[in-house]
Amino acid sequence: MMSLRTRIFILISLTVLIILGISLLLVWGFRKKAPATTAINQNLPTAQQTTSISSGGAIEPIVNAPAPALPINLTSEDVEKNTAKQLAKVFIERYGTYSTDNGSENVKEIKSLVTSALWTTLSARMNNIGVNENQAPTGVFYGISTQVFNMELNNWTGSSATIAMQLARTEEKDGIRTVKHQNAEVNMVKQNEKWLAQNFKWL
């Protein structure tokens, strides 16, 4: 017949074995579920903040927009080309968006996006009705919003580029809106490691 000490020892041993077995089962179950959770999270889109240009020329944030899919194996040249194109797009959309409510704010906003020579030309036009193509008709509300819907990179050299664009321009006058399509061309140059608009033309 077992002594009391032996019974206590067996009872303690069984308790320890049961606890150990439960712990192993929990660890095994956690490791089995973890990879599936990681795989799901990798497929979730990340959020980023972008901007849009309103008809009044103001820049409005758009939060929680899904991040665009990036091409695999981007080269440094691909990055440079994309930067030149995107900055040209921002320039033409801001410059081509204005109204009677904000005067020449669209010109002031693009100062950091253009070369000093182009800025001298554009800033001189602000108060010259005869040569300012952004001058709105007097006496009525007038606004125009410009949006690029297609771009093509031409004449790439690494330090300069020509970007051909197709635009949708929405005009509003006395409450009546009309949409017209127009082409534009922006010449970009790289100065001090920064892409700037050197000149442009409406087509």
How are the elements arranged and paired?
Elements: H1 4-42, E1 47-53, E2 59-66, H2 76-95, E3 98-99, H3 105-109, H4 116-125, E4 142-154, E5 160-173, E6 176-191, E7 194-202
Antiparallel strand pairs: 1-2, 3-4, 4-5, 5-6, 6-7
Task: Describe the structure in your own words.
- Helices cover 36% and strands 34% of the residues.
- A hairpin with a 2-residue loop joins β6 (176-191) and β7.
- It has four helices and seven strands.
- It is α+β, with helices and mostly antiparallel strands and 203 residues long.
- The radius of gyration is 31 Å and the shape is elongated.
- It has helices at 4-42, 76-95, 105-109, 116-125, and strands at residues 47-53, 59-66, 98-99, 142-154, 160-173, 176-191, 194-202.
- It has a five-stranded antiparallel β-sheet with strand order 3-4-5-6-7.
- The protein has two domains: 1-42; 74-202, VirB8 protein (Nuclear Transport Factor 2, Chain: A).
